[in-house]
Write a structure and sequence with these properties.
The complex is a heterodimer. Chain A is α+β, with helices and mostly antiparallel strands. Chain A folds into two domains: 79 residues, ACT domain (Alpha-Beta Plaits), CATH 3.30.70.260; 71 residues, Alpha-Beta Plaits. Chain A is 25% helix and 39% strand. Chain A has four helices and nine strands; from the N terminus they run βαββαββαββαββ. In chain A, a hairpin with a 5-residue loop joins strand 2 and strand 3. Chain B is α/β, with parallel strands linked by helices. Chain B has three domains: 183 residues, 3-Layer(aba) Sandwich (Rossmann fold); 162 residues, TPP-binding domain (Rossmann fold, 3-Layer(aba) Sandwich), CATH 3.40.50.1220; 170 residues, 3-Layer(aba) Sandwich (Rossmann fold). Chain B contains 24 helices and 20 strands. In chain B, helix 3 links the parallel strand 2 and strand 3. In chain B, 55% of the residues are buried. Classes of the chains: A alpha+beta, B alpha/beta. The interface between A and B is medium-sized, with 27 and 28 residues.
């Protein structure tokens, strides 16, 4: 099962390495990972998309992440009301003849062409993973030269922020 | 009075300007560190210069591995953090085994490693190693110091992290230029790490659930592990077991939590545990694990582990709960606080008399057994003799393997904090250096290092330290001229193909003892062993006792790998 996990971590050198090391030594596969500052400069947000066997494995992962001294808060937001987005840059083979055809194709995806060269264009698309993937499939027949994806970043909806404490873990409600 | 002195020290030193090396020394004094274990080298020369006249006891082991194992032994017995200082590169990589060992067995350590100067980090400088990278998975936390002014805060945090929550090793990597750099030493600030707030007080709701479960249970059992020892909760464990009439079994590292001769104590569980303890785990209807982490050596095949039991798990580390065994009643907290809460609840005990009678019957039917033969020294008999002659109250240290299992099975610990063994990692070479730390932590105690001939030869250089410090440690080498446990598995599972497990060629142990300036003994039969033990234990100084034991002797009973605890073999002679 695919889980989206967000966490707040201390913005210190080595923290990313601690976290990715933990994933690999506990046998978890990271599908994507995004990192960036939050509204507080000394805190970073990390968003992981991971593939796990079952909920027990997901819970164990969250507990292991929580155990890291530099991790402030971890939450599995997969089943919560949330917004999740990723950005992809797709370099597609394109001649002047089919350029307008591609433009028409990407429009419903609210994607845009951000660079044009002699025989290719770069399409930028933002959205949920399945939307990004659908567009990639549509563009594939034209010949895709390169794809760069950021991976998912996400948070929960509304104004309720994740509390920056580590207490109430899944157990001991 | 003591705190007043501490305050004065803090005041005096709070505004002082000094270099990083001096800060380290001052911080160790602030933390009340009595002894450090270490080995100097290039990157820690500034630190060693300050240690020269710091007035803190420094033990120079003859290998960094010895140093960190000694620190582990010290921590295990004293309950205080073990402190270790080593140089960069090879000094640091030599402590990796000890760090991992301490991580697995939850021992509080603060380890300082030197590092090449900040400016050359990453350039493959002489004696450079990426110690933070190497040790990240085997430390509770680690720091590399970037600014000398942060050093006091980092050290204070390190001691806090190492000793609170689930204890563990914390590493501080100090580049050489940081040790030389001047800064302001201020140690007065309280530690406050918002991202690290371990839960020690158990949740009342879960405690209530457990009380109810106990009342309804006819076959409860407590599996008590090292967490009980770390939390100094042995008295509470006994009181609670007596109050609720619940039988107790121990993990390897929990030994000593219940007195070995208590009527509610039914022995050690696990791969080489006793039949009664393993059947208690198999047949129980309520399993209360306290400070134990369901290691595979305890559970055997998880499919057959406590198949009919409701599981309650008390642990300070929430990540251990539900990791290996699904848990109905999770209790995150300190073992002593949880047991105290349970005792105070004073719930109605379940009807356990039939269950206790059943277990007592198992005990009579299937005791630990071996064939006695006075013509040789049976290892089990040797451990019994050590027990008799030390009245079950010596500090016993071991390596890993057959001798460790025999010691665990037959020593019969009367008290907690008397058992120093490498449980989780199973480290050969642990027993001798950890005995040094144990003796320094309890100078009056009789310390017996029970070692195999294989493990002994991995760290035997530390015999020098025994002689140098006149530590009256009794080193017993159970010499079967083989790597006994490897040999045992090859005999049982690999058609007696003893691939590289027999080591007939050995140093002359008597000459070795002599060379290191300690008294040597040897024993070849039971009578000799008894006499030699007596003499050695009465001798005021370190001794090395070479006891030749039969090579074919095996550790039984045994849960074969992949089997359930109820499928033990070798339960009857």
């Amino acid at each position: 099962m695919r889980r989206i996990i967000t966490s707040f971590v201390n913005n210190r050198s080595g923290v990313l390495s601690r976290i990715t090391g933990l994933f690999s030594r506990r046998g978890y596969n990271i599908e994507s990972i995004t990192v960036g500052h939050t509204e507080t400069p000394e805190v970073s947000r990390m968003t992981f998309v991971v593939e796990v066997e079952d909920e027990g494995k997901a819970e164990q992962l969250i507990k292991q992440l929580n155990k890291q001294i530099d991790v402030i808060k971890v939450q599995d937001i997969t089943d919560m009301p949330m917004v999740a987005r990723e950005l992809a840059l797709i370099k597609v083979m394109s001649s002047p003849q089919n350029r307008s055809e591609i433009t028409g194709l990407i429009e419903p995806f609210r994607a845009s062409i951000i660079d044009v060269s002699k025989d290719s264009i770069v399409v930028q698309v933002t959205g949920k993973t399945d939307k990004v993937e659908a567009l990639i499939e549509l563009l594939r027949p034209y010949g895709i030269k390169e794809i760069a994806r950021t991976g998912t970043t996400a948070f929960t909806r509304g104004t309720k922020q994740l509390k920056k404490s580590r207490h109430n873990l899944l157990i001991n409600p | 009075m003591k705190t007043k002195v501490k305050e004065e020290v803090a005041e005096k030193s709070s505004s002082k300007k000094m270099n990083g090396a001096m800060m380290l020394v001052e911080a160790l004094k602030e933390e009340g560190v009595e002894v450090i274990f270490g080995y100097p080298g290039g990157a820690v020369l500034p630190i060693y210069d300050k240690l020269y006249d710091a007035g803190i006891k420094h033990i120079l082991t003859r290998h960094e591995q010895g140093g960190i194992h000694a620190a582990e032994g010290y921590a295990r017995i004293s309950g205080k953090p073990g402190v270790c200082i080593v140089t960069s590169g090879p000094g640091a990589t030599n402590v990796v085994t000890g760090l991992t060992d301490a991580m697995m067995d939850s021992l509080p350590l603060v380890v300082f490693t030197g590092q090449v100067a900040s400016g050359v980090i990453g350039s493959d400088a002489f004696q450079e190693a990426d110690v933070i990278g190497i040790t990240m998975p085997v430390t509770k936390h680690s720091y590399q110091v970037r600014d000398v002014n942060e050093l006091p805060k980092i050290i204070k945090e390190a001691f806090h992290i190492a000793t609170t929550g689930r204890p563990g090793p914390v590493l501080i990597d100090i580049p050489k230029d940081i040790s030389n750099a001047e800064g302001i030493f201020d140690y007065s600030e309280e530690v406050n790490i918002s991202s690290y707030q371990p839960t020690t007080k158990p949740n009342h709701l879960q405690i209530r659930k457990l009380v109810e479960a106990v009342s309804c249970s006819k076959k409860p059992v407590i599996l008590a592990g090292a967490g009980v020892i770390h939390a100094r909760a042995n008295k509470e464990l006994k009181t609670y077991a007596e109050q609720q009439q619940i039988p107790v079994v121990h993990t390897l590292l929990g030994l000593g939590g219940m007195p070995g001769d208590h009527e509610l104590y039914f022995g050690m569980a696990g791969m080489h545990g006793c039949y009664t303890a393993n059947m208690a785990l198999y047949e129980c209807d309520l399993l209360i694990s306290i400070g134990a982490r369901f290691d595979d050596r305890v559970t055997g095949n998880l499919k057959h582990f406590a198949p009919n039991a409701k599981v309650a798990h008390i642990d300070i580390d929430p990540a251990e709960i539900g990791k290996n065994v699904p848990t109905e009643i999770p209790v995150v907290g300190d073992a002593r606080e949880a047991l105290t809460a349970l005792i105070e609840e004073n719930g109605k005990p379940g009807h356990t008399s039939e269950w206790l009678a059943r277990l007592q019957n198992y005990q009579r039917e299937y005791p630990l057994t071996y064939k006695r033969d006075p013509q040789v020294v049976k290892p089990q008999r040797l451990i019994e003799m050590v027990h008799e002659q030390t009245r079950g109250d010596a500090i016993i240290t071991t390596d890993v393997g057959q001798h460790q299992m025999w010691a665990a099975q037959y020593y019969g610990f009367k008290n907690p904090n008397r058992w120093v063994t490498s449980g989780g990692l199973g480290t050969m070479g642990f027993g001798l250096p950890s005995a040094i730390g144990a003796q320094l932590a309890d100078e009056k105690a009789t310390v017996v290092a029970i070692l195999g001939d294989g493990g002994f030869q991995m760290t035997s250089q530390e015999l020098t330290v025994l002689a140098q410090l006149k530590l009256p440690i009794k080193v017993i080498v159970m010499n079967n001229h083989s790597l006994g446990m490897v040999r045992q598995w090859q005999e049982i599972f690999y058609e007696k193909r003893y691939s590289h497990s027999l080591i007939p060629d050995q140093p002359d142990m008597m000459k070795l003892a002599d060379a290191y300036g300690i008294k040597g003994f040897k024993a070849r039969n039971e009578e000799e062993a008894s006499e030699v033990l007596k003499e050695a234990l009465n001798y005021d100084g370190p001794v090395l006792i070479n006891v030749v034991i039969p090579g074919e002797e095996k550790v039984y009973p045994m849960v074969p790998p992949g089997k359930g605890n109820h499928e033990m073999v070798g339960v009857k002679p």
